[in-house]
Recover the amino acids of this structure.
């Protein structure tokens, strides 16, 4: 987990507990003012509850004495609830209200994190992913393989697979190997292909699936990434450095579209190198092919990309054109 998340979430629990304590105090005050007789029963319960352990410890106490006191407390509790309900209040009006009853708003059940802690972490991940608004529209169910033609693409006469077969192989790898084994794999992915061949769509689907499984996925276009690297370098932005370096998956979209300078080349190489050394996973998509990478970046960068990433080639007719073509055909019918 990124440092800072733990304390941010624990602080949130603290706030919830303090709000609920305050609410309870107000409810108690209200009952005290309006129905003091109910609070008198409550005071009596408290007094007897303090007596109970003392009684148990005393050597002269019999089991019957303890039982008697227990019964008395039990009866008073019932009397209090009855009184509350008869005045139109809920039986829980004078107890603290937990938003999560499982962990009493502490985030932990014993030493294990409660489900509600995980939900809060996912929310924080979404906030930091850069994808919050986009991802509601993308998931694997909407990934339409039939958009990829199952015949050889005339622009790529040398391809072994049709665009459909190729995409199916990529899709199957992602869905049945990459995602289920995400925490065990150190595979980095390099999606290469022309615009409109499904790279970004598939990246979004992967991001959503992993975020929903509790991983921290951060999405940046190459252009944004270079600006962030400058911010980290010149403004010593530690939080951003931590996020970019230690997230579970960093997605860099459209590598090669950024303005390439000596600074961007060096910083990109440094990031790549650091993440590879730390075993932190990346998914890079680019319109460039392997030879272009060599021209665009320096040798050491392209050799890291080619040597340490699983290269996946995307090709088809432009999907956006294909979608339009289908729409037109449907309208003509
Ligand atoms: Zn909980």
């Amino acid at each position: 987990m990124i440092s800072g998340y733990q304390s941010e979430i624990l602080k949130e629990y603290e706030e919830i507990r303090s709000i609920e304590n305050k609410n309870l105090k107000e409810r108690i005050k209200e009952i005290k003012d309006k129905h003091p007789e109910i609070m008198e029963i409550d005071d009596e319960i408290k007094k007897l509850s303090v007596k109970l352990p003392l009684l148990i410890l005393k050597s002269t106490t019999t089991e019957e004495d303890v039982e008697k006191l227990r019964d008395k407390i039990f009866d008073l509790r019932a009397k209090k609830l009855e009184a509350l309900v008869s005045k139109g209040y809920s039986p829980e009006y004078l107890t603290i209200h937990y938003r999560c009853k499982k962990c009493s708003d502490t985030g932990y059940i014993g030493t294990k994190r409660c489900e509600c802690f995980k939900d809060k972490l996912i929310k924080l991940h979404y906030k930091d992913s850069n994808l919050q608004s986009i991802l509601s529209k993308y998931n694997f169910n909407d990934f339409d393989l039939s958009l990829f033609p199952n015949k050889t693409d005339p622009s790529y006469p040398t391809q072994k697979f049709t665009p459909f077969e190729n995409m199916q192989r990529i899709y199957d790898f992602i869905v049945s190997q990459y995602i289920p084994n995400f925490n065990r794999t150190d595979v980095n992915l390099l999606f290469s292909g022309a615009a409109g061949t499904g790279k970004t769509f598939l990246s979004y689907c992967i991001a959503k699936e992993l975020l929903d499984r509790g991983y921290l996925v951060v999405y940046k276009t190459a252009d944004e990434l270079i600006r962030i690297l400058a911010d980290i370098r010149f403004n010593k932005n530690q939080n951003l450095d931590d996020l970019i370096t230690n997230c579970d998956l960093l997605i860099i979209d459209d590598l090669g579209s950024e303005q390439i300078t000596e600074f961007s080349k060096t910083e990109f190489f440094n990031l790549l190198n650091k993440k590879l050394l730390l075993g932190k996973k990346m998914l890079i998509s680019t319109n460039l092919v392997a030879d272009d990478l060599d021209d665009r970046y320096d040798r050491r960068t392209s050799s890291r990309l080619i040597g340490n990433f699983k290269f996946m080639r995307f090709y088809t007719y432009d999907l956006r054109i294909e979608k339009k073509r289908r729409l037109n055909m449907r309208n003509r019918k």
